[in-house]
Amino acid sequence: MASLRIRVYGDPVLRRVADEVTDIDGEMAELCQQMFTAMYEAPGIGLAAPQVGVSQRFFVYDFGDGPGVLANPEIAESDGEWTYNEGCLSVPELSWEIVRPRRIHLRAVDLDGNEVSIEAEDLQARLFQHELDHLDGKMLLDYLDDDQRRDAKRILRQRVTGQSGRPPGTGDGLSLP
Ligand code: ZN
Q: What pTM does this model have?
């Protein structure tokens, strides 16, 4: 099977509010396996379905202690505040200082269809919030001020001419040590 292509800024699927997952079946499990392959190759620590062109509410992740899949995630509670340099596989090679709550209580459904409740903090909480943003069609550029966004868009437009490098920063765009 062909490997998945990670969609980048400008692709309309990244701006769509994804649909609730209604069937957790073999097809979704197969897609998750392909998403893990794409995520590890990138390399990244998280990848949301819209990032591979599938407008459904689930994402895969791996903080280095094994793969996980969460569907229909919702943040029940959040607190604290933490600024951290964050990147995104869909906005390669760019990163910004982004403020987010430090701790969250996340409710979701796993690949077996079981409801899960997760207390996350720091990098884990940040990644979950980042991936949940993708499910709502939100991207890092939405957190920037006008000047930052203008600079980012200028750089992204220049990309059309083609260049490559490694993304700095952390978000779903960096593998953990
Ligand atoms: Zn991202």
A: 0.90
